[in-house]
Amino acid sequence: MDTQEYIVNMGPQHPIAHGSLRLVLRLDGETVVEVTPAPGYVHRGIEKMCESLNYRQIIHLTDRMDYLSALMNNWLVSKTVEKAAGIAVNPRIEAIRTLMAELQRLQSHVLWWGVGGMDLGAFTPFLYGFREREIIGTLFEETIGARLTMNYIQPGGLMYDILPDFAKKVKDILAYLKRIIVEYDTLLSGNVILQERLRNIGILDPKKGIALGCTGPVIRASGVPYDLRKLEPYGTYAQAEFDVVVGTRGDCWDRYYVRIEEMRQSIRIIEQLIDNIPEGPHMVTKFGAKIKVPEGIYYGHIETARGVLGVTIVSDGKSDTPYRIHFRSPNFNNLWAVTALAPGWRIADLIAIQSSLDLVIPDIDR
Amino acid sequence: MALEPAAAKREKADRPAVQVPPDKLAALALRLRDEPALAFDLLLDHTAIDWIAENRFELVYVLYSTVHGHYLMLTTSVPRETPVVPTLSAVWPIAHWQEREVYDLMGVQYDDHPDLRRLFLEDEWQGHPLRKDYKDDYMLGLPK
Lengths: 366, 144
Prior knowledge:
Strand order of the largest sheet of chain B: 1-2-5-4-3
Strand content of chain B: 25-35%
Radius of gyration of chain B: 16 Å
CATH topology of chain B: Beta Polymerase, domain 2
Order of helices and strands of chain A: EEEHHHHHEEHHHHHHEEEHHHH
Strand content of chain A: 5-15%
CATH class of chain B: Alpha Beta
Shape of chain B: globular
Low-confidence stretches of chain A: none
Oligomer: heterodimer
CATH superfamily of chain B: NADH:ubiquinone oxidoreductase Nqo5 subunit
CATH architecture of chain A: Orthogonal Bundle
Structural class of chain B: alpha/beta
Low-confidence stretches of chain B: none
Largest interface: A-B, 38 and 35 residues
Number of domains of chain A: 1
Number of helices of chain A: 15
CATH superfamily of chain A: Cytochrome-c3 Hydrogenase, chain B
CATH class of chain A: Mainly Alpha
CATH architecture of chain B: 2-Layer Sandwich
Mean pLDDT of chain A: 89
Strand order of the largest sheet of chain A: 1-2-3
Largest sheet of chain A: 3 strands, antiparallel
Shape of chain A: globular
Number of domains of chain B: 1
Largest sheet of chain B: 5 strands, mixed
């Protein structure tokens, strides 16, 4: 029987996108022949807006890119501006930033696990993932006053100091999460249907993955130990002992299990750092003081929950706003891998592949 | 620098940075990727800066080598009236995707790009918003 290729728009409204993302699929029956992503439904022009905002005001816009890594986004801009403007922060600020970033990585990964389960047809993990996410969210709310759009890490310090019982509360959460991750394994990881849907699906070759600009858990699952926390330690990561989790095959299952293991590593990092928060002020610059960056081009990057978030700041040295700012977003670059991973697989496998890339759409569009 | 006589140091950058004329870009990119001592296999980022006072766009490529762990910022400048450079999508496949963003928002043309279309904005959008002289009817002025 003769078959005919046809084109289907998957999205912009599709449950797998967790936002508005359109994939244009060229199909031969159920088999994907070609995928062309068509983003832009949440494009807000953040880079253009930043050109008329000063370096403190930019921070709150970065929350709205990858909202599940909001604190890491804040940290990146703060870190790059501090380095460029010559502001030295104290060890207390660095310690709190590191702890908060790792807590958020945990929060992001538990949510990914929940929605990842739902993408593949298991609804219960979705409820479980949100349950754990809310517990960490409540801790953030107590310290920061926000659960999602943090605006917490500022150039020169932190918006608010931590509360006296912060360490105790974090330890309680860690004790709980350790138990929960075992439960995640028994509930979902060991499930035969899940394994069948993830194992040997969408294999990403390490060399190809690098050429496609993949970073974060996606490239680590292919066996490339590219983790900025280890390679170029920032914050207080150098003080903690932890392993860079890598996969062996680079299939969807490796991308799934790398994130589960990363949760365990994050718990390990926090446990080592939580009792060593030095004393000191939580802000070293005067609040609201103008920050001037000398003329030049500055690039900085950070390991968020999804990969390398980079920022290029161009200053003309004349004002306290950047001349040009550009974000190298991990999701924008990881999304491109779908064009190489999906062809040859069925539509249902494409769902697993996209889910294993863990995309946050507002970070693609910016 | 020994690699490409036309290359010069790009001043005022916070990491090793070189600038090359646009006609030398493609050949140099290929050598940066393939020379074993350099091995820049990861194109981390590509973007453009609109230097309107100097009537040029500066294109920035941030390169990283997963083999050696070193960085390079590669830049090239093109005139604003004819912003054309060769595509690097054959050297680093991710450039295909990153160049589409720069084309959409900054209006840089990439020669031989396989699929140079707008990425974020709709197809009938007029102009390129990240240019410094961009204006449309819906833009709000800055508060005085």
